[in-house]
Design goal:
Length: 425
């Protein structure tokens, strides 16, 4: 095996992009991945279809990054979504744009994205090594090598630069187990505590389990903090589960619900956002009049999904077998208010292992935003979810991975030209 100039630790989206871009600059690159195959987490993104990026401008990407978006200004200007789309199409992957400007492979197969990266790595003669990285070695304060294994089974790779792209803590079965946080901390970096982001929410309300599997589309979810300040409000789709709430709206909302230990949050769903109260009341009157002799649980079937009907009636204290013509104005008013504001108690997020993305990571003020090089350790670069940046759903997190991966790969290659490579084991 030839001695690498650069070792990339982590074979996910950011790591593979870093390795490709460094190798395209002429560097000899070794990629270390603890799983048997690279890109394992990419297999499950976008429900197995891989939401590659979002077909929008860099400004729109930053608008969908609630945490440290300014840090990514240079990286996103250098690697906008248009560049990412062109990159994959140049590798033979046909793409398509769907609702919300989400970009997917035309085949709907995440394997096409992984294969394109893998074969480009092979074409560029990047060496892929399977194993777990145990430490980054320094000499004179700068990177001089990477060690794999434990105890007497250590394997050393002398190198001139290293890129850490090990991911966060979400989906540990894919290899995101926090190794990069440990390595960064050992090298003197501040690691902001990780918490789940883009994660389902748990609720103590028993009706959630009763409505398990019910998806509500085109509803508005509003989240308020303990001071009654609205921290999130958006229209879209959510899902009731046995533990609480999930779905695109809920995952995006979770990114705004920072610290459940210090803060409390309340969720409310507008089930009929297209109708104001007056219009909704007129609709209720029409349905009640048309079904005057029918039971309320039957009449409500024209206004709400089957699983939601008994819950709505119970919460306003209306028996399901009550005739529509017997409904009082006060009961109709309570029903109207519940349609416009259906509260759901929230106790906290699901475990970080179930999160799509991890919030927290290497403190960005300690990283050069143009090259992703450490400001503390020469020759050390960071990319992807390991950094303290995260975004909403819609392809934005993968866009961050591609942009920071390219910046780190090209930054590491440029670093080689600025140094004589004298640091060795």
């Amino acid at each position: 095996m030839n001695r690498p100039d650069i070792v990339v630790v982590g074979g996910g989206a950011a790591g593979m992009m870093a390795a490709v871009c460094a190798a395209r600059q002429g560097a000899a690159v070794t990629l270390i991945e603890r799983n048997r195959k690279v890109g394992r987490k990419l297999y499950i993104t976008g429900k197995g279809r891989c939401n590659v990026t979002n077909h929008c401008s860099p400004e729109e990407v930053r608008a969908n990054i609630p945490r440290n978006a300014r840090f990514l200004y240079s990286a996103l200007e250098h690697t906008p979504p248009a560049w990412v789309e062109e990159f994959f199409e140049s590798l033979g992957v046909k793409l398509k744009v769907e609702r919300g400007n989400r970009v997917f492979p035309a085949s709907d197969k995440s394997a096409d994205i992984i294969d394109a990266l893998f074969f480009e790595l092979k074409r560029l003669r990047v060496t892929i090594v399977n194993g777990r990285t145990s430490s980054i070695c320094l000499r004179d304060g700068g990177v001089c090598g990477v060690e794999m294994g434990e105890g007497t089974g250590l394997t050393g790779f002398p190198c001139k630069a290293a890129v850490l792209a090990t991911g966060g803590l979400s989906y540990p079965a894919t290899g995101s187990t926090g190794d990069g946080h440990r390595l960064a901390a050992e090298l003197g970096h501040t690691v902001v505590d990780s918490r789940p982001s883009l994660v389902p929410l748990e609720s103590p309300d028993p009706f959630c389990a009763r409505m398990q599997g019910l998806a509500l589309k085109n509803v508005v979810l509003t989240v308020k903090n303990g001071k009654k300040k609205t921290v999130f409000q958006e229209q879209g789709e959510l899902l009731f589960t046995h533990f609480g709430l999930s779905g695109p709206l809920v995952l995006s909302a979770s990114a705004h619900m920072g610290d459940f230990e210090k803060e409390s949050y309340t969720c409310a769903i507008d089930l009929k956002p297209a109708l104001d109260e007056a219009a909704l009341d007129a609709r209720l009157v029409r349905e009640l009049s048309a079904g005057a002799n029918r039971d309320m649980d039957n009449v409500m079937g024209t206004l709400a999904p089957r699983l939601l009907v008994p819950v709505l009636l119970e919460r306003v204290g209306i028996p399901g077998n009550k005739k529509a013509h017997d409904l009082t104005k006060q009961e109709r008013r309570r029903l109207l208010e519940l349609f416009k504001c259906f509260p759901v108690a929230v106790s906290g997020p699901r475990p970080i292992e179930e999160a799509i993305i991890t919030s927290g990571g290497v403190k960005v003020s300690e990283v050069d935003p143009k090259t992703m090089q450490s400001k503390r350790v020469p020759g050390l670069f960071f990319a992807g979810e390991l950094l303290d940046v995260d975004a909403y759903t819609g392809g934005f997190n993968l866009q961050i991975a591609w942009a920071t991966g390219r910046a780190a790969g090209e930054g590491a290659a440029a670093y080689l030209g600025e140094n004589d490579g004298s640091k060795q084991f």
